[in-house]
Amino acid sequence: MSGFDPFEKAAHKAHVWLNEIAGHMGDDATRQQAYAAMRAVLHALRDRLDVNEAAQLAAQLPLLVRGIYYEGWAPAKTPLKIRHRDEFLELVRGHLGKTDNVEPEPAVKAVFTVLREHVSEGEITDVMAEMPAEIRELLAA
After folding, report:
1. pLDDT higher than 70, residue 1
2. Each residue's pLDDT tens digit, 10-55
């Protein structure tokens, strides 16, 4: 090969996302906690979105992050009919591991901040349009 390694590039992009998420979670957040947060929040978003919108969001994620996003997805069971902020936070909590020591609300805010930095404004608008008001307010914070 001529020095171009697509796996290294994909890994680098995933590391950038994890570092940014950890940075938004706070000074003492580890990369493991950032990974747990990213995975849990992306799974909660994916499960709450219409299948077409979930796929459109995935198309803008880096390769390895997209794989994490799709991991374990059952499209026939989505979208979940979650209408309230606390229900969404419980969905995130359900996707978090018991030993990750990550709280759902800061995780949601950190991950969605990074999504807004890397995903097109139009796609973020589309994702927000599918969310009920209470969840939109949580994501916009």
Report:
1. no
2. 999 999 999 999 999 998 999 999 999 999 999 999 999 999 999 9
Q: Is the pLDDT of residue 3 over 70?
A: no
Q: Give the CATH fold of the 6-140 domain.
A: Globin-like (1.10.490)
**Is the Cβ–Cβ distance between 57 and 47 less than 8 Å?**
no
Tokens for 46?
């994916």
Burial letters for 68-91: b for 16+ Cβ neighbours within 10 Å, e otherwise? bbbeeeeeeeeeeebeebeebbeb
* pLDDT tens for each residue of 48-101: 999 999 999 999 999 999 999 999 999 999 999 999 999 999 999 999 977 678
Beta carbons within 10 angstroms of residue 47's beta carbon: 21
The amino acid occupying position 57 is L
Contact between 38 and 18 under an 8 Å Cβ cutoff? The reply is yes
Distance (Å) of CA 39 to CA 5, 82, 114, 129: 25, 19, 13, 22
Residue indicated by tokens 């890397």: 118
Please, are residues 100 and 52 in contact by the beta-carbon 8 Å criterion? no
**Is the whole-model pTM more than 0.85?**
yes
